[in-house]
Amino acid sequence: MLEKIKNFALYGGTDKESYNAVRGKIQEYNRITAFVFASVAALLIAIMFILAQSQEGFSGSKTVYAFGVIFSLVQVGISILAKKIPVLSYVSVYMAISVFLIYGIAIATLTRPEEQTVTFMVLMIFVPLIFIDCPLRIALSLIFFIIVFIIMACRTKTGSILSVDITDAIIFGILAIVSESVVNRVKIKGYVLENRLHIMSETDQLTGMNNRNCYELRIPQYHSMYCNSICCIYIDINGLHELNNTRGHKRGDEMLCYIADALKTQFGQEHTYRVGGDEYVAFVPDTPREEIEKRIGTLCETIEEHGYHAAIGYEYSEKKDQDINELIMSAETGMYRDKAEFYKVRDRRER
Q1: Whole-model pTM over 0.85
Q2: Class for domain 212-350, per CATH?
């Protein structure tokens, strides 16, 4: 029960791992949203400030409007910086919440203390729903501003208006906390579900490697993924069909998984792919040829020690404008040569 409460408060009803997997997307969403809202706020409050110069009804709020414009412009700058420093997206979010709620408090307690508060109550419910963050953090920020409002109201309001405003602040504050918790939970779970579907669409379910769909999507990107060199390694398992026919598909699947794990051990998860039933491709950026050949040798030894065999071809290039499709074709050609040699030797032994 405590674990569920913790996950709801901190991760919107998901878990830490799932939340961290989508943190980058949430930060980018918040950054863009904060930038848009801060820009709109700066424009609208600037218009109010201009009106305050000539309209008597607005003149008492000049200081508030000036503060709002400056604060909003600062937030615009932070939102732009957050593109390079993602953690600033959280600063931008809470600055956006702060600028609206402080504005609502100032209007309610400094410029119109004789009137019942409406602006602050509306902003308190509406503004937190725009952004995405862990429910507990947003709830604590709302509680802070509710307390600030009550303190300011006690200093500037009197009589029934004070009683009504304090009561409204508490009631609408509770509604705001509940609504932001529910909405944030839905938004975060939506991002997590989207991320899981994305992973499923690009992951081979048997081996856990990147699948052909992922491979096809990334091929056009590899020309920009290296600085000095790029190597393509093409692998085809020998004897899978015979193993499936003689010992069953379960043993064949075991071989596929074993070789996939050996390949990931040598070349990592990020740039290794299962591109066919018994075919794998790995890319190795910015690694010396000698190191790659050493890893390929270790890979072959590991596979053969387990009684399996794979045909391997590779192509290494130091050209910055290397055509990746040509690189793959050269590696594949080398694999076919290795496969032909294997079956030639095996046939000779059988005879």
Answers
A1: no
A2: alpha beta
